[in-house]
Specification:
This protein is of the alpha+beta class. It has helices at residues 38-43, 48-53, 55-63, 75-89, 92-97, 137-150, 165-168, 182-196, 200-216, 220-233, 251-260, 311-322, 325-331, 343-352, 383-388, 409-442, 450-460, 463-468, 471-478, 480-491; strands at 18-23, 29-35, 66-71, 104-108, 118-120, 129-134, 268-277, 280-290, 293-294, 300-303, 336-340, 360-364, 369-373, 392-395, 399-403. A hairpin with a 2-residue loop joins strand 7 (268-277) and strand 8.
Length: 492
Amino acid sequence: MDSTKNKPDLSHLPNKPGVYLHKNSEGEIIYVGKAINLKQRVNQYWQKSSHDSSPKTAVLASESVKVDYIETLSEIDALFLESELVKRYLPKFNVELRDDKSAIYVKIPYQDPIPAISFTRSPKADGATYVGPFYSASPVYAAMRILRRALPYSTHAKIPKKACLHFQIGLCPGPETDDFDSKRYRLNLKKLEQILKGQRSTVLNSTKKKMELAADKQDFELAARYRNQLRALQRISRIHLSDHQIIGSDQALAELQKLLGLSLVPKHIEGFDISHMGGKDVVASQVVFKNGVSSKQDYRHYKITKQQNNDFESMADVIFRRFKLKNIQAWGTPNLVLIDGGKGQLSSAINSLENKTVPMFGLAKQFEQIIIQKGDPNFKLNFKFAAKTNRIIVEETEHFVINLGPKDPIRLLLERIRNEAHRFAVRYHTKLKRSHIKATELTKIPGIGSETARKLLITFGSVSGVKSAPHNQLASAVGNIKAKNIEKYFSS
């Protein structure tokens, strides 16, 4: 069949940059792409030459019956939005038309004494932070060039002996110079990471407040530096997602509300998970999804005080702490809470709540089943809607169990939340475990106890960072005597 003959109406597409969404006959998003010119790019999918050169493109065109779009101000905006939507919807043709090598990540190795920014297509489990994936390299490079004017960063794998050209023109912090400020540099890298993750407004607001504070103190040189940062950052106008921008209300959220009988669309969902190794270094994660998209600036992690191989008690601990009045006032109350686990974890979590008005359910791992506690007034299960949409609700003695199909949009959304909670918990557990190992090494130094060792790791990032730190920075962190002991230990 010649799929070029089944071209949908594309007359509504503008000659402007943005993101386009191919949809099939069931309204499912099957491919997300970006374009400098939406009309020109999308029309190419129904050109015979494109099908001749790429059979997969022909298959995509044959299944696509509608193309929606989100207009952006620039190709860079489209880049960020494309990455976010692909991670949100996981369209099947994004997997089939692109392999892992096409995605690019920005690498920030915070564990190094002087982190150098680099780009890679193959992230590793080496302790560095990888931001991405992004699906087109050139806009990433362009965005990073603009960001570098506001937040100068080093690209030196090896520190040069004299000031580099980038330092002289204000694009490098100059780790090879006497003017280098390690603390300020790391703060700038955190800002850079936040912007790449879509938290531009947080950085802008923080920078603006610092500029105003510096001006109030009549530190006009510092105020001018923050002003220049603001101007450069504002050149990248980051997209803020909303239900309207993502083509109407999200199917999964709307259906989840209807299935569970919630009073509100669950636009604010929090997921919790526990991670430990045999009851040691026990931690919990709290991830936040707003409008179906991860809100990483709202993530939290918790150390569980009691070291135990008991996920039920650990889950009760973290839920009790999360929903203390002061935290509710600071972070708000979610519309829905996902507990990673089955009936035991869910019961422990609910029993720990002082206020039972928070809708809370479990997601059992083996069959991805939703677990609802019987008698919970926050839920009014819609059995008719479940039957109509091929979702099976099984009534048990103390719980309702809801079975979802493998491609169910609700299941896909909940899996993303659960997997993110698991990833974030494991990441913190691993970091804690490594810090204990490193702290143990530093406590071999005379006069360095566990608390001082942790302080050194926080200040310098790693044992190698402590080892290479100059005397004045060590003395500033832990005092002159301990600084000399550290230098003596590593020089012997």
